[in-house]
UniProtKB/TrEMBL annotation:
Domain PDZ stretches: 88-145
This protein's UniProt keywords: Hydrolase, Membrane, Protease, Serine protease, Transmembrane, Transmembrane helix
SMART domains (UniProt xref): PDZ, TSPc
GO molecular function: endopeptidase activity; serine-type peptidase activity
Chain segments annotated as transmembrane: 7-25
Highest taxon of the lineage: Bacteria
Organism: Mucilaginibacter rubeus
One example of a Gene Ontology biological process annotation: signal transduction
Pfam families: Peptidase_S41 (PF03572)
Protein name per its UniProtKB record: S41 family peptidase
N-terminal signal peptide: none
Family classification: Belongs to the peptidase S41A family.
């Protein structure tokens, strides 16, 4: 499985349910005591004490306590939940924009760690570690072939800043062992997955999350695109499951003029708080199109909803997730935490886009699958016929256009899902990380033929013969493949193979340049 030293990986299908789908954390709420320590007459505390002292078998009280707290919270709403220490740490690092490590992504193949990305400016790059290198030994101890796990790998590459790690590696397309010393340091995690000129005048920026560094990452990318002649922006929020509320409002501020209401929040214990734009935005006048889909949630919906209500952008794609709840994180002394819903948010027109969770957590999480079954991913009218919109109050944009509440942001321009790209076979190939594995195992010599990204993108095309070789390669892992699925998946497989090869050598921008050439929503966005 391809991972970073912070356990980050990309798949084609984003199954973002539970914690990260629709997360909005508000760092601006005043800090307060958790108030979760159970008093002596608490039934929960007494039951846990009884179990600890009297139960027939040995039990992990900490684990039971966590499950009990989580069940309590999940009965409130689907986004209030208990986070074990590792999960809380992973989420916070992702949203705080970095961690202490060496700055790599990797793939495990045949119990060997192979470097698939080296972060620019990070400790690994400074030490001379190359993409395609195999890590054989760590600190003079056997690493390759030692039953590697993600937990063990993280314990090696992440940890105390400035600590040195001695790596014995085999560089790409080599058989010779090379010794490198890497010093751990802070690794930045950018919110911007890609930023490039989509055509002569249109810049494209894809944002994967709303973290503490999102606005800074965006401004840096926008500045570079303006130098390249950009006067129109295509902002891609597809698959963006949320993050910090103030990161969403800061990004909205880049597009709106002084005094415009971006969003407001309120709850029974939280008075109404309004968030307004300032006059500091870098892109207040240029044409703006925003891409969303069913996995665009909460902070993404705050931004899309504000830009739609204020007639500042054209929203293109499919109905967003539908999450209008704001969480605050409360930490326990052991590093675990509670994400507790403390407010609802409302778009400038007064819309709450939170979908119903009255039928319980399981039904809530299955709602996206239900959309597909009802045909909503393929028909705009099917969305409008959904019960979440029937009988809902009318809301209007600044110019008087009708917009919808109660179930996500409905796009201004609907684009149906392309099922040919998401066959069960492609899902399996992606989840097994076989596209990247094939690049590592079979295509590194091919990549040597193309000195530049531009030459590769314009001159290389995946042939039918190459697809056949890939299917044969994948059949060693996926033993049974439906011949019909193979046939209808051939063209998407070509695109993904080329995209993964481009990413392996030139990074994320090259990956999205390839992926977007065959993307209907991207093309529709360019037309606006």
């Amino acid at each position: 499985m391809k991972r970073t030293a912070g356990v980050i990986f990309r798949t084609i299908i984003l199954l973002l349910v539970g914690v990260m789908i629709g997360q909005v954390l508000n760092k601006d709420f005043a800090a307060r005591n958790l108030g979760f320590s159970f008093v002596s007459n608490s039934k929960i505390a007494k039951v846990l004490q009884l179990v600890d002292r009297n139960y027939v078998d040995s039990v992990n009280i900490d684990s039971i306590e966590g499950v009990s707290v989580n069940n309590l919270l999940q009965n409130l709403d689907p986004h209030s939940l208990y986070l074990p220490q590792q999960q809380a740490q992973s989420i916070n690092e992702r949203l705080d924009g970095g961690f202490n490590g060496i700055g790599i992504e990797y793939q495990l193949l045949r119990d060997t760690l192979i470097i698939t990305q080296v972060y620019a400016g990070g400790p690994a790059e400074k030490a001379g570690l190359l993409v395609g290198s195999k890590v054989i030994n760590v600190d003079d101890k056997k690493f390759s072939g030692s039953k590697l796990t993600a937990t063990r790998i993280n314990s090696v590459f992440r940890g105390e800043k400035d600590a040195e790690i001695k790596l014995s590696v085999v560089p790409p397309l080599s058989k010779d062992l090379k010794i490198l010393t890497v010093k751990r340091g802070h690794v930045d995690l950018s919110s911007v997955d890609a930023a490039y000129m989509a055509d002569a005048k249109t810049g494209y920026i894809k944002i994967s999350k709303f973290s503490a560094t999102t606005d800074l990452d965006f401004r840096k990318a926008l500045t570079a695109l303006k130098v390249d002649g950009m006067n129109k922006l295509l902002l891609d929020l597809r698959g963006n499951g949320g993050g910090y509320l103030n990161a969403a409002t800061s990004l909205a501020d880049e597009f709106l003029t002084d005094g415009k209401l971006i969003v407001y929040t309120k709850g029974i214990h939280e008075p109404r708080t309004d968030y307004f734009a300032t006059d500091s935005g870098m892109f207040q006048k240029g044409k703006l199109t925003v891409l969303i889909d069913e996995y665009s949630a909460s902070a993404s919906e705050i931004l899309a909803g504000a830009l739609q209500d204020l007639d500042r952008a054209t929203i293109v794609g499919r109905r967003s997730f539908g999450k209008g709840l704001v969480q605050q994180q409360f930490a326990f002394d052991d590093g675990s935490a509670v994400n507790l819903t403390v407010a609802r948010y409302y778009t400038p027109s007064g819309r709450s886009i939170q979908k119903s969770y009255k039928n319980g957590v399981d039904s809530y999480r299955n709602e996206l699958a239900q959309r597909m079954q009802k045909g909503e991913l393929f028909s705009e009218q099917s969305n409008l016929n959904d019960s979440v919109f029937k009988g809902s109050p009318s809301f209007h944009t600044s110019s008087g256009r009708k917009v919808f509440s109660g179930g996500g942001i409905m796009p201004d321009v609907f684009v149906p899902a392309d099922t040919s790209k998401f066959t069960p076979l492609i899902q399996d190939l992606s989840q097994q990380q076989l596209f990247t594995a094939y690049v590592v195992d079979r295509q590194q010599q091919l990549l040597k033929k193309y000195p530049t990204e531009a030459e590769f993108l314009t001159q290389y095309a995946v042939s039918n013969d190459e697809v056949d070789k890939f299917i044969l390669y994948a059949s060693q892992t996926i033993k049974e493949m439906d011949s019909h699925e193979v046939q209808i998946s051939r063209e998407p497989i070509k695109t993904i193979l080329k995209a993964q090869a481009a990413r392996f050598k030139w990074g994320d921008n090259a990956y999205f340049k390839v992926i977007n050439t065959d993307d209907v929503t991207f093309k529709k966005g360019l037309e606006q």
